Amino acid sequence: MTIIQLEYLLAVANCGSFSKASELCFVTQPSLSMQIKNLEEELGVVLLDRSKKPVVPTQVGALVIERAREALLAYNNVKECVAELKGSISGKLRLGVIPTIAPYLLPRFVHRFGEKYPNVELEIREMITPDIIRAMDSDELDAALLAGGTCPDRITEQELFDDRFYAYVSPENPLSARTNLRIEDIYGKDLILLSEGHCLRDQIIEICGSNRLSELPYTLQSGSLETVMRIVDTTSMLTIIPEMALPYIPEALQGRVKMLARGAASRKIVVGVRRTYAKETLVTALRETIMECVEKKMPFKVW
Asked: Is 92-303 in CATH node 3.40.50.150?
């Protein structure tokens, strides 16, 4: 039994396919299949049911896979401990970022992270929360930047900072004349949101109350907060935006941003990490770099 065999076994279990697993492991499919076959022969059991599509573990295979995860975690921990003692932070960090964070937070820290940790390969993918969770479960991502409270128990959330919500109001909307808005002032006939699957949409519905959002006038399948804001600019509607988006609003449009009177109208930004992820030093480096950069506030005036 070898580490390579266990890695290949986990790859197939995560991907549900020998071909996808071979691509993930950068090895030919026959080589990957042979390694798993050799492992099965050594153990004297069948670990994967190849007749199913996708491929699934057998009953004994599920037990072996669970132990394999533990073994690989311990193996990777040994390598990380040695690298840390040598004062080296290196390796690959596959990071998922939700669309309502990516355009506003990534420009703040990515360049700085590369400067501080030149031996770390940072691979970033913009994805909605459900896709991030699936990718982490299938070992396609190591960590993610997302909103707190959206991860299942198998993924730990490490808090970064609070991100307040603001209203972005069309000058044609009656609420535009106000400096502060109450949540109670916002009704579904005026509010436009991101499409389903975006946690920001779910959080706004929870804050405003779903019973008051039954009159949504648009069916919009958009994952871009910028698209939603441009629709507000050309209608009499409004939307809710996070604080991290404020510095990127053109000066001519900044008067459309209104504070929400309810102080609890915010989300927590977190780093989500798989419980079996070994390279804690990489995640710590990521968190420290983000906090270093976001503490340097970008100026913005709320009218």
From this structure: no
At 132, phi and psi to the nearest 5? -65, -45
Please tell me whether residue 136 adopts helix, strand or coil conformation: helix
* Angle value at C-alpha 103, between 98 and 106, nearest 5 degrees: 85
Into which CATH architecture does domain 3-85 fall? Orthogonal Bundle (1.10)
Beta strands in the chain (DSSP E): 48-49, 56-57, 91-97, 120-126, 143-147, 155-169, 180-181, 238-242, 257-260, 266-274
**CATH 1.10.10.10 intervals, the chain:** 3-85
Contact status, residue 286 vs residue 207, Cβ threshold 8 Å: no
| pLDDT mean over 218-235 | 79
pLDDT band of 302, cuts 50, 70, 90: very low
Over 80: is that where the pLDDT of 288 sits?
yes
Q: Give 3-39 pLDDT, tens digit per residue.
A: 999 999 999 988 889 998 999 888 999 999 999 999 9
Cα-flanking dihedrals φ and ψ of residue 120, to 5°?
A: -105, 130
**For position 294, what pLDDT does the model report?**
85
Residue that the structure tokens 């991907």 belong to? 15
